[in-house]
Fold this sequence. Notes:
Layout: H1 11-31, H2 34-43, E1 48-49, H3 50-57, H4 61-73, E2 77-82, E3 85-90, H5 93-113
Antiparallel strand pairs: 1-3, 2-3
Amino acid sequence: MSSPDPDVLPDKQLDEMAESAKQATALLKALAHEGRLMILCHISSGEKTVTELEELLGQNQPAVSQQLARLREEGIIEARRVGRTIYYSLADGRARAVLELVYDLFCAKADRSS
């Protein structure tokens, strides 16, 4: 009888890997939009309202709200209501880690050259 091939993963590990890949794909798809990425960059420094994000992004309320809705659906951000104002903040530590990496790769160099 031959020994098991070390390159072949057991079914359980394959299932776990597939689930991890599915979760990673969902996160990366949500981040793979310039508007959503900009929202997350602003929110990563502290919670923001839709009005604050409109001003920071130079976009109208429907456009910002649409992107916020997608980020909420994915569980990347969360909302906190105070009266009529809703504050958005980062809810997913994995998204924060990806944002930090993106910042280090693409933004830190620009900051150093200014």
